[in-house]
From TrEMBL:
Residues 24-278 form the EAL domain. This is EAL domain-containing protein.
Amino acid sequence: RAKDNGRGSVCTFTADMNLNVVERMQLLSRARQAFDRQSFTLHYQPQVATADGRVRGFEALVRWTDSELGPVSPDRFIPVCEDSGLIVPLGLWVLETACIEAVGLGCRGAGDVTMSVNMSAVQLAQHDFVPRVLEILARTGLPPHRLELEITESQMIGSLDAAIGKLNALRQAGVHIALDDFGTGYSSLTYLRTLPINTLKLDKAFINDVHRRPDARSMVLSISRIAHDLSRSVVAEGVEELAQWEALSLMGCDLIQGYFVSRPLPADRIDAFLAAWEERRARLPVARDDVV
Ligand code: C2E
Ligand code: MG
Ligand code: MG
Ligand code: MG
């Protein structure tokens, strides 16, 4: 049920409803312990250019395997971390770790790849959010244009002006902003116009039928046209098949992210992925010059 409603506050609410008070307290206490013991990790999922298949960046996704509970999905523990405030230090750790990884990748020959990092509404609402982000960039040495912060529309509700002010400040410093999960929950074309975003991420729900159903195709085609008219780039999430890639390419989507290219990877497997991908890419029958 929570999944159907998309992410953000609705999702948080339903996720909370699914866990009883005891379960929530248990999850939070395990998460606090995991944070103190530094047992959260990050996985990285590549984003490739639709036109030529080259790797342009990665999205950092937090992972946690508890010794008793086993692997816990971020869809389950992020809402608990948000409600308790643990997301603030956890989010700073995620950001710093992802920036360090991006710098390392560049040094190892991956080029100017970008790093996308998910931001929670609770983080964005912190009064020192902007200086904290800038401080981490300065400390890690990642050029601001190589960082992309992912936010969702539901995070804007309630404090739109404050959020826009902060996002503008970050954009002025060169940081990129992406609107995540577009097409679920509260998606509105107004946000596409008014939020200072560089990138629109089309949710997997939009992508699922894009190669099979004309109505899904028209939606993606129209949204990507609007996005391009507004000078936003378009990323398709949850691409699992070559046929989806081909359809998205014809519809002008700029980047592809999904299991078709790779599942999210632990840091120590990125270099092997990059090498293997170059070989696979050369054999892919993807559109190159006939992009709309
Ligand atoms: P998201 O930011 O929309 O991330 C995309 C999710 O889709 C990830 O799930 C990813 O593993 C999954 N995915 C990617 N490609 C495919 C595909 O081809 N097929 C399918 N079925 N799934 C695919 P994950 O890692 O479980 O993360 C879930 C959500 O948790 C994320 O959604 C994001 O909203 C949140 N999250 C993850 N890491 C962080 C974090 O560091 N901070 C915050 N605040 N939220 C995070
Ligand atoms: Mg994301
Ligand atoms: Mg998403
Ligand atoms: Mg999502």
